[in-house]
Amino acid sequence: MKLIVGLGNPGKEYEHTRHNVGFMTLDTFAKKVGCSVSKSKFSGLYGECFIHGEKVILLKPQSYINLSGEVIRRYVDFFDISIDDILIIHDDLDLPLGNFRIKKKGSSAGHNGLKNIELHLKTQEYKRIKIGISNDKSIDTKDYVLGRLSKEDNQTLESVIDTVMLVLDDYFVLPFDSLMSKYNVKNKK
């Protein structure tokens, strides 16, 4: 069984903000595979589906991004999911908008949601897809990540999410190292 988590903040006021890239990506994938992420449990919205014969849980933690680890831990324990079968999709300030990076493990790089996940999973060795949102150093980081995307930035992000859909398709059929080799390319910008 696999657990795919999109990180974001619940509520209308956070829709279409940079920090909600994980939610946006997971929603797009759920729609693509016909999985409704509408059940509620352990402060999370989730859906269950089968992809290539494997049960998959799609999860959107609803306890705010900085407390995502608490929610993920509950799902891991309840559904008896191996850390190796977790994939986290999240925003990344260090990657330019229009880019993404697939990683097997790594530090939180200052992302409070990832810090909380590491705290509750007790490891940095979980898979992730980092989606670039760039970083405007002239704006306070909190205000920047909670800021809404411009129409142009949203179009760029939609294009990246389309490519991430291909990554997620291949996630179920390729070894993770092969997935990284196939999709991790030099930043475009």
- How many domain units? 1
Which CATH first-tier class would you pick?
Alpha Beta
Major β-sheet profile: 7 strands, mixed
Mean pLDDT across all residues, rounded? 91
Can you summarize this structure?
The chain has 189 residues and is an alpha/beta fold. It is built from six helices and seven strands; from the N terminus they run βαβββαββαβααα. It has a seven-stranded mixed β-sheet with strand order 2-3-4-1-5-7-6, with helices on both faces.
Features:
single chain; 189 residues; alpha/beta; Rossmann fold; 7-stranded mixed β-sheet; 22% strand
How would you describe what is shown here?
By secondary structure, this protein is α/β, with parallel strands linked by helices. Helix content is 37%, strand content 22%. The chain has helices at residues 21-33, 68-79, 112-121, 141-145, 151-171, 176-183, and strands at 2-6, 39-41, 44-51, 54-61, 86-92, 100-103, 127-132. Strands 2-3-4-1-5-7-6 form a seven-stranded mixed β-sheet, sandwiched between helices. Helix 1 (21-33) crosses helix 5. It is globular and about 45 Å long. The model has no long low-confidence stretch (mean pLDDT 91).
Secondary-structure map with pairings?
Layout: E1 2-6, H1 21-33, E2 39-41, E3 44-51, E4 54-61, H2 68-79, E5 86-92, E6 100-103, H3 112-121, E7 127-132, H4 141-145, H5 151-171, H6 176-183
Parallel strand pairs: 1-4, 1-5, 5-7
Antiparallel strand pairs: 2-3, 3-4, 6-7
